[in-house]
Automatic annotation (TrEMBL):
All copies of domain SCAP beta-propeller, residue ranges: 6-345
Biased composition (Low complexity): 1-11
Region spans: Disordered: 1-34
Coiled coil: none
Membrane topology: Multi-pass membrane protein
UniProt gene name: F8W921
Location within or outside the cell: Endoplasmic reticulum membrane
PANTHER family the UniProt entry points to: STEROL REGULATORY ELEMENT-BINDING PROTEIN CLEAVAGE-ACTIVATING PROTEIN
Protein name: SREBF chaperone
Keyword flag Membrane: yes
A Pfam entry, by short name: Beta-prop_SCAP
SMART domains for the chain: WD40
InterPro entries hit by this protein: Beta-prop_SCAP, SCAP, WD40/YVTN_repeat-like_dom_sf, WD40_repeat_CS, WD40_repeat_dom_sf, WD40_rpt
Cellular component GO terms, alphabetical: endoplasmic reticulum membrane; Golgi membrane; SREBP-SCAP complex
Organism of origin: Neovison vison
Length: 354
């Protein structure tokens, strides 16, 4: 199931030239499959979201595209808007695009099913329906603009998250805004940071946390718009932010990962990271944290801050920083390690922590 699909691989630049953001989605090289990302005339890819078998792409040109992840084909795209798409939310059949000019576009994804053999595989009722929608390649997919909020922020939107019927934006204007997802109505403007917003977390329980260039973390009450706590977390930008039921986990440009008590805002402990690995972390369960290092990933007991195990991804002499970690549903993790992707299964000893 993990076999690479060449159709979705951005064409790589020629030998000797390091890839730059502008090169992503460049012209396909000789011999590459005809199903490839559109050429760079359409602009660099600034944001990506995946749901089921569909990928939504936001480009620097302002174009929104919906791609089929299985076929590698472009299913539909929006009209050009001159302002690039800095962040995306793809939730059920709703797509929200945040733009460099501070505006928000709300789209609905409409599918018109055509009769297809995919719909008649197996006996009826034999399997439960998949958790994520899988669209057959014969479905007609259309993207319809339903609302626009022209000046959601005065400056570019840098963070966008949605959960529990709420959409949260963070901007370079130092504020966050909370919108109702169904009608794009702005409920609150949240003020409490003295720098641009760099990270936002919101979940189904309406817990909202934000981090900024000021190194601070704020916790907010989404129902009232009031600030619950304010923590001076990092020297420099907060680079990522996540929560478990009992704690808040933050990372910063200072290569520290800090764990905070969610109810009191008190720091429990910090983990010093290798240079350049500070933002790579993932939560496997309420008790288990995975962090990246030079050529390795480490597993930690969140309750006590104990290092449980370190897994090395290659020869020590070729240690590369682990820059991104993605936790999969089956307790495996995928990490971006040098120029490779590594798949690591969580050691069974650790899973017993649950």
């Amino acid at each position: 199931a993990l076999a690479p699909r060449p159709a979705l691989r951005p064409a790589s630049p020629g030998p000797g030239s390091p890839p730059t953001p502008e090169d992503e989605g460049g012209y396909p090289e000789k011999g590459s499959p005809s199903l490839a990302w559109a050429p760079s005339a359409d602009g660099s890819i600034w944001s990506l979201e995946l749901q089921g078998s569909l990928i939504v792409v936001g480009r620097s040109s302002g174009r929104l595209e919906v791609w089929d992840a299985i076929e590698g084909t472009l299913r539909c795209s929006s009209e050009e808007v001159s302002s690039g798409i800095t962040a995306l939310v793809f939730l059920d059949k709703r797509i929200v695009a945040a733009r460099l000019n501070g505006s928000l576009d709300f789209f609905s994804l409409e599918t018109h099913a055509a009769l297809s053999p995919l719909q008649f595989r197996g006996t009826p009722g034999r399997s439960s329906s998949p958790a994520s929608p899988v669209y057959s390649s014969s479905d007609a997919v259309a993207c319809r603009l339903t609302h626009t909020v022209p000046c959601a922020h005065q400056k570019p939107i840098t963070a966008l998250k949605a959960a529990a019927g709420r959409l949260v934006t963070g901007s370079q204007d130092h504020t966050l805004r909370v919108f109702r997802l169904e009608d794009s109505c702005c409920l609150f403007t949240l003020q409490g940071h003295s720098g641009a917003i760099t990270a936002v977390y919101i979940d189904q329980t309406m817990v909202l946390a934000s981090g900024g260039q000021d190194g601070a973390i704020c916790l907010w009450d989404v129902l009232t718009g009031s600030r619950v706590s304010h923590m001076f977390a990092h020297r420099g930008d907060v680079t990522s932010l996540t929560c478990t039921t009992s704690c808040v986990i933050s990372s910063g440009l200072d290569d520290l990962i800090s764990i905070w008590d969610r109810s009191t805002g008190i720091k429990l402990y910090s983990i010093q990271q290798d240079l350049g690995c500070g933002a790579s972390l993932g939560v496997i369960s309420d008790n288990l944290l995975v962090t990246g290092g030079q050529g390795c990933v480490s597993f930690w007991d969140l309750n006590y801050g104990d290092l449980l195990q370190t897994v090395y991804l290659g020869k020590n002499s070729e240690a590369q920083p682990t820059r991104q970690i993605l936790v999969l549903d089956n307790a495996a993790i995928v990490c971006n390690f040098g120029s490779e992707l590594s798949l690591v299964y969580v050691p069974s000893v650790l899973e017993k922590l649950d």
